[in-house]
Amino acid sequence: MSACATGLFGIIRTLMSTSRVIVFVATLAATAGIVYFAIPSSPAPKQTDEVVLAREAPATQPGTLLELRVNDRDVPARVIVAPEQLTEAVRRPPAPTDDAAVLLALPMEFEFNVQGGGLESPVDVAFINASGEVVNTSPLAAGPLGEVRASDKAMFALLLPYKKADALGIRHGVTITLPDLKSAKVDLPSLPIVNMSLGGVDHTLEVADDMLETMVGLMYRDAMPAHRGMIFAFPHEQPLAFYMRNTRIPLDVIYVAEAGAVVSVVTLKPFDETSSPSAGPARYVIELNAGEAAKLGIKAGDKLTLPDLAQQSKADKN
After folding, report:
1. What is the model's pLDDT at position 58?
2. pTM of structure
3. Which of 72, 88, 114, 275 has the smallest set of CB atoms within 10 Å of its CB?
């Protein structure tokens, strides 16, 4: 499944009760089954308290070069969708150039901030909703104190060289033709993996255990090899619900309780945004190619031996 997930307000309470300023603060929508993020407009977060620490700027520019259509003009842009790159890019965005803008494509609409850490000069930022309509534009000052915020729910942040937004006529209410991410070739995330036996067959599972990784999930994949999949780890048992936004391949979704008991199994079709909830509280979700759960004989009530996700994830991400 693509964007993941949960209908639980327990995570909200947990996050909001901490004193930490996190890159993303989740506000979860129970009926949509999706994690919404809002980035607080508070002072710059303390480095030691963040969930994701700052990294050195990559040697090569991240993103996939695609084209936008702005007022009858084609605008090349490096589109960033991978969770690790997005987490970094909202704080330390790559600089746009005259040859290519930068488009941060989030998994869904929510209000968020973009900071100017890593920029050497100011840039223009246009926040855009899922329909392609510009929500607001603002100059972003260079440096860690620079910060701009979407004035309403947005799904994209378009970064342009300073004053180029005006030159292109990009302003509130203008509609931009965005790349079709349902079919475009995009950079995919690189996640830690674990091995797990399912139905007596060894499987290799990618681990999604932070909020952006969980939201993106298996979006944008054109295929998945046999005996491969993804496992999602949540902080505690809770009602969960997945759907298939931007997910190109059919999937079996296996909801699993904390002790390893299978709660329920559903098969989801590509791009189906109907929320499919678990039959009861679950802490883990395993996604396999559609039909594989039935072939392996996996059904509600079965007991699975879960891998040590916390240890594996921590080791692979360090």
Report:
1. 39
2. 0.71
3. 72
